[in-house]
Specification:
By secondary structure, this protein is of the alpha/beta class. It has a single domain, classed as Rossmann fold. About 35% of the residues lie in helices and about 20% in strands. It contains five helices and five strands, in the order βαβαβαβαβα. It has a five-stranded parallel beta sheet, sandwiched between helices. Strand 2, helix 2 and strand 3 form a beta-alpha-beta unit. The longest helix is centred in the last third of the chain and has 17 residues. The protein is globular. The N and C termini lie far apart (about 35 Å).
Length: about 150
């Protein structure tokens, strides 16, 4: 019997408690969840790809069905390469939905066999974004409430 494989792509710059919440939620819906750490050439990362990979691996080391892989290029191509049936995306707000909907529809045109599934964050994590966390870090603020808990 074929494993159900999903991916959860992101830059994870840094990984937040909101990411962790959605990834754990997604991992319960598939046999294997691949957390894909994207190397996006159009984005200037605050942390190196290797550092982000290390943090994500540590975050999910106790989950048997969560794998961590780096990739570059289109997420839909990464999903195809990994034989994924699903791309999971977290939604914090209607603004996230509008943005993610366009990407999901584009991916569907490129590959109708891979379904995008939106998962809602909970209220506790709804305001957290990597860009806000990076801004707090840059200004020497306390980020402990926003980073993933081990």
């Amino acid at each position: 019997m074929k494993n159900k494989i999903g991916i959860f792509p992101g830059s994870f710059d840094p990984i937040t408690s909101g990411h962790r919440y959605i990834i754990v939620k997604a991992s319960k819906l598939v046999d294997v969840l691949i957390v894909g750490i994207g190397d996006n050439a159009s984005k200037k990362s605050y942390y190196s790809l290797d550092q982000r990979e290390e943090w994500v691996q540590k975050t999910f080391k106790s989950y048997d069905n969560i794998l961590v892989k780096k990739y570059s290029g289109l997420t839909i191509n990464f999903a195809e390469k990994e034989n994924a049936e699903f791309i999971f995306r977290g939604l914090r707000s209607s603004i996230d939905f509008e943005y993610e909907k366009q990407i999901a529809e584009t991916n569907s045109v490129m590959n109708k066999e891979i379904e995008t599934i939106f998962l809602l964050s909970n209220k506790k994590h709804g305001m957290i974004s990597s860009s806000i966390v990076r801004e707090i870090i840059k200004n020497n603020g306390n980020i402990s409430s926003f980073l993933q808990k081990k």
